[in-house]
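Let's practice the habit of predicting before peeking. Look at the sequence and jot down your guess about where helices and strands might fall. Then scroll down.
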Amino acid sequence: MNEIKELLASPGFMSQGSTMGSDISYFFAVTFILMFIYAGSLATKGMGLRHHRMILLSLVVMTAYFIFYYLVRRLGLESLADRVNFQGYEWVYRDIFKPVLYTHMVFVTITFFLSIYMIINGFATAVTIAGEMKLKSEPAPRSKVLWLTGLLWLGFLIWWIFSSSRFGVSHQVMFLALGYLLPAMLAFAIGYWLSDSARRHRIMGRLCILAFIILFITSALVYYLLYIFNS
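Done guessing? Here is the structure:
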């Protein structure tokens, strides 16, 4: 384990100021973001089956990324708790880096939630016709799987956040809001305004692609400000 920590703390391969851990995590992040964007583009071209397979593969890569990023930097929570050693000017950190970082964390939450939500919704909405997957238009039922997953996630989040002594109350509340309240509000809004299953999947799919594009931009900005801006 110490050897792995030493390897992750060694100089990176993408910039002078980065570490191997930061570069590998950024590479994983860019990879799964581009995979999700590509999967979305397949859906817009009517390639339902290829879209379905690509989404599942993207989810596997994203899950691997989050496991690795948790080991490297506790899912970025150390960044939010001001534990990243930002080397730039104080005004850059306060007025540029922190807003970009908070925006990035919000879109991490949104894209992660939408990925899980859209996969569950896709299985419930899609039908196979002549070897191709199509969307069926009908009132979207409430997903027991989604709500059960949400309750399990909430339980884990409460246990993990409040069992840790690393963060103060303000950060604990913020992490809970990012980790559960924001996704819960999104789920409620989707269910309220988009009742037709096919229309819901198409609209949310377009918003999901947009969210991943924004995530790609904020990821690049955070990496640049941390490891290239002052190197």
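How did you do? The mean pLDDT is 82.
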